[in-house]
Design the sequence.
C-alpha cells in the first residue's frame, strides 16, 4: 500500500526520486496521465486491473473511449534506477505541467502513486481538506 506525501525535485533529465518506502513495491511500474493534472504510477498488477476496468467503461459512451485513448496512449513502462529515480516521458511531464528542476509532490493513494506539480498539489490538497471538514 502506498501512503504519504513526499516532496522532491524533478531533475533536468525529467527524473523524479521515488520515496524509499515505495521502491520495493515499484521495481517495475507503469506511468500514465491521470485525473486532475497529475501522473499515476501503477504496479504492473494494478495497471492490469485498471486496464480491465477501462475496457469495461469502453462498452459505454464516447467519453469513455476518449478517456481510454488518452489513458492507454500515454501509458509507459518504467523501471527505477539504482538511486530510485523514475524517468517521466516528456509528453507526460507536459500533461502534468511538470518542469525540469521544479518541485514535485509524490503521494501515496493506496493502490497507486500520484506525481504532482507542487503548486497544483497545493490547490488539490486544500480542496481535499475542505471536503474532509464538510464531511465531519
Sequence:
Amino acid at each position: 500500500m502506498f501512503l504519504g506525501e513526499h516532496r522532491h525535485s524533478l531533475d533536468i533529465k525529467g527524473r523524479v526520486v521515488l520515496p524509499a518506502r515505495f521502491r520495493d513495491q515499484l521495481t517495475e511500474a507503469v506511468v500514465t496521465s491521470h485525473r486532475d493534472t497529475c501522473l499515476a504510477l501503477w504496479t504492473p498488477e494494478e495497471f492490469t486491473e485498471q486496464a480491465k476496468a477501462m475496457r469495461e467503461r469502453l462498452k459505454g459512451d464516447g467519453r469513455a473511449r476518449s478517456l481510454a485513448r488518452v489513458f492507454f496512449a500515454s501509458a509507459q513502462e518504467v523501471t527505477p534506477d539504482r538511486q530510485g529515480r523514475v524517468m517521466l516521458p516528456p509528453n507526460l511531464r507536459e500533461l502534468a505541467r511538470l518542469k525540469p528542476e521544479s518541485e514535485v509532490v509524490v503521494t501515496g493513494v493506496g493502490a497507486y502513486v500520484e506525481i504532482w506539480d507542487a503548486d497544483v498539489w497545493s490547490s488539490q490538497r486544500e480542496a481535499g481538506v475542505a471536503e474532509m471538514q464538510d464531511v465531519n
Notes: The chain has a mean pLDDT of 92. DSSP finds five helices and eight strands in the chain. The helical segments are 20-23, 44-58, 62-74, 90-95, 118-135.
